[in-house]
Amino acid sequence: MSKRSTWALPYAIFLVLFVALPLILIMVYAFQDGAGGWTLGNFTKFFRDTDAINTFALSLEVAIENTAICILLGYPAAWILSNKKLNKSAVTIVLFIMPMWINALMRTLATAELFHMLGIQLGKGTLIIGMVYDYLPFMIYPIYNILDRMDKSYAEAAADLGATPWQVFWKVQVPLSMPGVVSGIMMVFMPTVSTFAISEFLTNNKIKLFGTIIQENINSSMWNYGAALSLVMLVIIGITSLLQDNKKEVSGGIV
To answer: 51 Cβ partners below 8 Å, 6+ apart?
Structure first.
């Protein structure tokens, strides 16, 4: 027990049981048919399934729209929160992150009930509003962290050299805050693509996202096809993560 590596053993067991093993099972099921034989049929079925492809395209569309709106709303909010002249109270920051303390399903149900009370018909518009409400804090917080920890001497040096406040913001603060923006995009875009509960409650299941198709296949005991769809999603997440790491390295090199 005196060795530090011994204390890491519980975490290693947890990772094996709840991270590595589920991923291995997904990969095994994805490349098997119902009889247990090895096949690529689950993936060819996905690329031939017009409904699945259209749903995947719609999921990407909704995710892009949600992410774009979150950036447009989240970046100014994060900038204001990090500006000590405009925000002099830590309470304001807490108010922005308080929605993250409430279960996402409860927030979604409350949002759907609000639309019902206002007589607003559920559809894509209500879905986008609900998505923005649920994921906006995940865009604000990483950007705020970067802006709040940013060395203020960069902005002061730019101002001393004659840069206007807009030039300081656009040419100094925005480039240096890109790691926070990239992290925010990751935290908003990928969950939006894979979610299913939010679309079900905020559209009365009129609009299906990619996560809904995975859920339906799993619930229908079509484990192999559902695992293949899940693996497709994992590959996309992996590629996006690699792109994020590359962007961070480039940003670090520029700084």
So the answer is: 213
